[in-house]
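User: Design a sequence. Structure:
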């Protein structure tokens, strides 16, 4: 009855089908009749719309994922069958089925249908809805609606923790023994030790990769064993069960990416590539404290679930660090006060992939390295200009994180690539200088007002403005990284104002990273022009102690607990509080060192922002510390 054979059809859920996150509508679409989408016969387009700000009149399409849509089901004009599948054209495969207007219309209808059935049943009732678009008239129709029955029945009010039990499984190819029912036995001696990243456990077959030339041989769910990783390795790291490296500390590339992906890593394990061999069954455990262990064989481990509503409340706010927007829904139910660090670099590297200035100068860009051709392929599915592509992609990535935690605050760090990292983006080699020490060079705030980059920074500002004002995410707080001087901070704020981001307008707050000794020494002056601080303990330690945190030669000296670092942090908290300016910390140190956390809480830190795997531990730690400090204060008063 609806001629979707001449247009498109699909399915709509009024929640996220992967995580059960309730504040989005997920729409899938493919060309032709809807049966292919319902049966899973095609890889459809996917769209995500945020319901709360949609209801407020905004246009919050927070994600679009283009499917391959290799075939479509149409009516057959002759023969015994009434329908048949035919190949889609290249144009159809490389185009979205729905425009933004249709996406928003369907999402509004989904909200109305969900509200109707929720009212009728007396409880929240997310819906599974089928829809179709008529190719003759262009009209949209809802053709079926029924309650969703999978995610809505799950208990999302839980945190999961891992505990190694030690007993080797009889069947090393089965993982069913790795549950809460497994019994504890003596743990064997580890083959290797290194620095633990995360607090999870994973098993699998080792696969040694010695160079980037061997990346293609990696197999999913194997344990990646290598000397070290770099950004080019991220695609295989996403497929790994765990990561083990010979070198590196807990702030190296392997460690940072493993935390973002939510997989365990044992870094700095010395001779891992010599001791382990391809195909060997191993278990990587990061659930035994600061030291990560690699065991021979498949070991049992226990997964414990904690009810979130039974966790203690803390005066010190606990925030989340997050990089991958598409991981946001999974962590949205964590009992955190918001996001203390959302990294724009992940969105730029993995979704946009292009250097901002290459998009600004797209028409005059040379193609002698093939960069322009590859950029044009990315732009082929986008209707706007090259710069619109950057703005819309970044706004959607930021918006996805803001949506997951709305209305809780989400602190978005503006780009902090170093020149060598920017150069790896498509077209980046044309715009980045060669620096001897990029860590201390043209990065962070110094780029934003510089004529060599300020047009690229304007795109970041436009993305923040779009996410806040077009999509409705006023919970976004932009944060300026690596701001060396107060005068530089003023220049950045002036540049943001030129790009229509005015501090105080529409509730806009702007934070600054405290990661340079000058930030701590002049905290009072920085607090006069910014609305909050976030201490980056990695860079602050590196610069306070004068060492390269990526160098294994001086890694033993890298310690956030050093008295010089603690004095700088104490100065920041004291002087910022005199200006009624909040101070948080977003480094890894609090989750690694209990005594460092105690120092922060006793100094009156306002918030601690951590990676997802450390949240449960930190809530319990901070609650106990606050109780201890209250008791001490009470005794002192008596």
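Assistant: Done.
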């Amino acid at each position: 009855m609806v001629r979707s054979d001449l247009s498109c059809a699909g399915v709509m859920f009024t929640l996220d089908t992967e995580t059960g996150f309730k504040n989005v509508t997920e729409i899938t679409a493919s060309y032709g009749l809807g049966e292919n989408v319902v049966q899973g016969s095609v890889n459809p387009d996917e769209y995500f719309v945020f319901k709360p700000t949609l209801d407020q009149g905004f246009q919050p399409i927070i994600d679009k994922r283009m499917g391959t849509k290799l075939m479509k089901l149409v009516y057959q004009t002759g023969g015994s069958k009434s329908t048949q599948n035919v190949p889609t054209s290249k144009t159809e495969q490389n185009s979205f089925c729905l425009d933004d207007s249709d996406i928003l219309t369907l999402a509004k209808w989904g909200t109305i249908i969900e509200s109707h059935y929720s009212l009728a049943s007396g409880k929240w009732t997310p819906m599974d809805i089928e829809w179709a678009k008529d190719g003759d008239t262009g009209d949209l129709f809802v053709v079926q609606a029924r309650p969703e029955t999978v995610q809505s029945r799950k208990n999302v009010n839980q945190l999961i923790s891992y505990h190694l039990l030690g007993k080797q499984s009889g069947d090393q190819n089965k993982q069913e023994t790795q549950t809460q029912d497994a019994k504890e036995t003596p743990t064997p001696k580890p083959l290797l030790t290194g620095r633990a990243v995360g607090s999870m456990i994973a098993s699998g077959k080792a696969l040694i990769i010695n160079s980037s030339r061997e990346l293609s041989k990696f197999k999913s769910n194997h344990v990646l064993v290598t000397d070290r990783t770099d950004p080019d390795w991220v695609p295989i790291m996403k497929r790994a069960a765990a990561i083990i490296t010979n070198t590196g500390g807990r702030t190296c590339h392997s460690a940072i990416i493993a935390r973002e992906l939510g997989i365990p890593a044992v870094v700095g394990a010395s001779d891992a590539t010599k001791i382990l061999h391809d195909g060997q069954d191993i278990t990587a455990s990061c659930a035994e404290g600061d030291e990560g262990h690699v065991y021979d064989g498949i070991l049992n481990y226990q997964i414990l679930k904690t009810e979130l509503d039974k966790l203690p409340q803390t005066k010190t706010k606990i925030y989340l660090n997050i990089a991958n927007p598409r991981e946001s829904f999974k962590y949205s139910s964590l009992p955190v006060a918001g996001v203390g660090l959302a990294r724009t670099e992940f969105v730029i590297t993995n979704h946009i992939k292009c250097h901002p200035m290459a998009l600004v100068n797209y028409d005059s860009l040379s193609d002698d390295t093939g960069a322009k051709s590859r950029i044009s392929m990315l732009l082929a599915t986008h209707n706007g200009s090259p710069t619109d592509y950057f703005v819309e992609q970044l706004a959607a990535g930021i918006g996805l994180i803001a949506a997951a935690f709305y209305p809780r605050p989400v602190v978005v760090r503006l780009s902090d690539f170093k020149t060598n990292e920017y150069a790896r983006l498509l077209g980046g080699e044309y715009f980045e200088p060669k620096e001897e020490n990029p860590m201390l060079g043209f990065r962070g705030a110094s780029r934003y007002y510089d004529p060599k980059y300020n047009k690229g920074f304007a795109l970041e500002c436009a993305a923040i403005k779009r996410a806040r004002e077009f999509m409705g995410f006023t919970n976004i707080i932009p944060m300026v990284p690596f701001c060396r001087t107060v005068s530089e901070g003023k220049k950045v704020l002036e540049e943001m104002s030129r790009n229509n981001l005015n501090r105080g307008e529409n509730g806009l707050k702007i934070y600054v990273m405290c990661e340079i000794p000058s930030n701590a020494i002049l905290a009072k002056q920085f607090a006069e022009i910014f609305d909050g601080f976030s201490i980056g303990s990695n860079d602050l330690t590196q610069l306070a102690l004068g060492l390269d945190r990526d160098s294994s030669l001086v890694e033993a000296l890298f310690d956030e607990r050093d008295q010089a670092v603690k004095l700088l942090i104490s100065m920041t908290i004291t002087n910022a509080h005199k200006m009624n300016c909040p101070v948080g910390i977003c480094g890894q140190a609090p989750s690694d060192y209990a005594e460092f956390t105690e120092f922060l809480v006793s100094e009156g830190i306002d918030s601690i922002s951590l990676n997802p795997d450390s949240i449960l531990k930190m809530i319990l730690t901070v609650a106990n510390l606050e109780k201890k400090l209250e008791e001490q204060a009470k005794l002192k008063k008596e």
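Residues 158-306 form a domain with the Glucose Oxidase; domain 1 fold (CATH 3.50.30.10). Confidence is low (pLDDT under 50) at residues 169-182.
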